[in-house]
Design goal:
Radius of gyration: 22 Å
Structural class: alpha+beta
Number of domains: 2
Number of helices: 6
Shape: elongated
Order of helices and strands: HHEEEEHEHEHH
Number of strands: 6
Distance between the termini: 56 Å
Strand order of the largest sheet: 1-2
Strand content: 5-15%
């Protein structure tokens, strides 16, 4: 496999130097071969690492045709790992959803997204939300959100830390968190196609995800 990939790389370099005249399907085929060559160049050492140690290498390529995809540890019953792209989803008043697709595996972890979601909200609407609830609690994040103008910070505390909200506000934010799960479950239905989209590139997968959310919001608006 490594020998074939090395020869493929040399052939592609030779074609580039020779200035081969390609058009239409020839250019598509060449781009596909370049992508496969680059993916295999990275995958081969990962396979060797697994054969030698029995452990999966960090950043393991899971698809030759879509090397941008990655594994996402969920820890759910019956679905410990999912394959694809990470998404950050927020629920607005009225039940509408906003979606952000990650450009890197760890970009939208709860700790980071807790703050970046507020920045996106301000950029879209010109002001921060009055209340905000999700995971990603830390003293640093609580302070950051308050500085950005969020009055009711409902980040679920860890260990023995105390909630920043209480009473009716806390109850309302906890209920809102449960409601976003409904919205996520809805867009995963085959009607919207958020899961397993018919896409041949990571960019198109992102577009399909946004189209699914758009369809969900339009149906809600029509109702």
């Amino acid at each position: 496999m490594e020998t074939l990939n090395t020869r493929l790389g040399k052939a592609l370099m030779g074609a580039e130097k020779a200035g081969s005249r390609l058009s239409k399907y020839g250019l598509v085929a060449k781009a596909k071969l370049v992508g496969l060559n680059q993916a295999m160049t990275k995958l081969a050492p990962q396979i060797r690492y697994w054969l030698k140690t029995g452990f999966v290498a960090s950043g393991k390529i899971i698809s030759l045709h879509l090397p941008e995809l990655y594994s996402i540890v969920r820890g759910k019953v019956g679905k410990t790992v999912e394959l694809g792209l990470s998404w950050g989803l927020r629920r607005l008043r009225g039940g509408y959803l906003l979606a952000t697709v990650a450009t890197a595996k760890n970009e939208l972890g709860d700790t980071k997204f807790a703050v970046s979601a507020i920045d996106e909200h301000i950029a879209l609407f010109g002001r921060p939300p009055r209340a905000y609830d999700r995971g990603g609690w830390s003293e640093k994040n609580v302070v950051a959100l308050k500085k950005k103008g969020v009055k009711a910070v409902g980040l679920a505390p860890r260990d023995k830390a105390k909630w920043e909200v209480s009473g009716a506000t806390k109850e309302r934010l906890v209920n809102e968190r449960a409601k976003i799960e409904r919205g996520i479950g809805t867009i995963k239905h085959s009607k919207y196609g958020f899961n397993r989209p018919a896409a041949r590139s990571a960019r198109m997968m992102g577009a399909c995800g946004q189209l699914a959310v758009l369809g969900f919001n339009l149906n809600k608006l029509a109702r």
